[in-house]
Write a structure and sequence with these properties.
Length: about 160
């Protein structure tokens, strides 16, 4: 069953699913919109399921896609403190350092930075997804996280 943290591909680009939100008779997957900008396509594959982007919110770096079945993701607002960036490539410890209703900053370990294919990875606190990794700055070891509140609002959830 599909779940947050699963790998996805679009053309030659790779990414990670931040969340699956219940949506009527299926689920909306959430990931980073820049993956599709670089791939030049709205087609994607996740867990053997082929689908296409149903909504792009480029101003927030959010992309939504529909799948028939998935494990619904528990979302909650971020809090200051310890968190994890979780993907098929592993779990990376971080700290949520700045919070707003839309964007948050995370501080990452210099020796354990996310790499290619981890765009869109869920940021987790207490077993719940609090946001999605959008970008990182290798010089400062800080990342930009899209809050779970914004992900849900833009999905209409």
């Amino acid at each position: 069953m599909l779940q947050c943290g699963d790998a996805l591909s679009s053309g030659r680009q790779r990414g990670t699913v931040a969340a699956f939100l219940s949506a009527g008779n299926g689920y909306l997957g959430v990931t980073a919109a820049h993956i599709f900008q670089y791939s030049g396509s709205d087609l994607l594959e996740v867990g053997g399921v082929k689908t296409r982007v149903s909504s792009l919110r480029r101003e927030y770096d959010l992309a939504y896609f529909r799948v028939p079945q998935a494990k619904a993701t528990l979302l909650c607002p971020p809090e200051f403190g310890e968190a994890e960036v979780s993907s098929r490539l592993g779990i990376r410890r971080c700290r949520v350092s700045d919070i707003s209703w839309s964007l948050c900053m995370i501080v990452l370990s210099p020796g354990d930075m996310p790499g290619p294919g981890e765009s869109g990875a869920p940021v987790v606190q207490g077993g719940r997804v609090v946001g999605m990794l959008s970008s990182i700055n290798l010089n400062t070891c800080k990342g930009t996280m899209i809050s779970s509140e914004l992900m849900a609002r833009e999905a209409g959830a």
